[in-house]
Amino acid sequence: MRHGFITLRGSVEHHYQRTEAEQAVRYLAGVKGVFNEITVKSSIKPQAIEQKISAAFQRNARLDARQITVTATDGTAHPRASASTSRPSSPTTKAPSWSSSTSRPSGLTAI
Tell me: the pLDDT tens digits for 24-54? Predict the structure, then answer.
């Protein structure tokens, strides 16, 4: 302790340990302040998080793609989306139809 101030240094596994170390000394007699320089070691690798998020997006995209069907009748494409049981359904569960004889909204392509 120097002039009533304590500096804590080191590393811990969890944030609560850093907080508890500071609380343990903050209210000791003569302590005016605490400089908490304790670092928390992360046991989770950023690459592992990135891979898990990417895999989840790919999984959801495959599930979403299975929910869409397209039928074509007399030059008209009829895309339809079925309501998912794992997600809240949207107010519109039917996609619009485009006919080859009518104009399409710009930027959209019927495949």
Answer: 999 999 999 999 999 998 777 778 878 888 8
Q: What is the DSSP letter of 106?
A: T
Q: Can you give the pLDDT at residue 84?
A: 57
CB atoms within 10 A of CB 18: 19
Distance between CA atoms of 71 and 44, rounded to whole angstroms? Answer: 46
Listing DSSP states for 19-77 in one string gives: HHHHHHHHTSTT--EEEEEEEEPP-S-HHHHHHHHHHHHHHHHHHHHHTEEEEEETTEE
State how far the Cα of 102 lies from the Cα of 98, in Å rounded to an integer: 7
- pTM, entire model: 0.41
Contact 4, 30 (CB under 8 A): yes
Residue 102, pLDDT score: 44
Torsion of CA 6, 12, 14, 18, to 10 degrees: 0
**CB 35 within 8 Å of CB 8:** yes
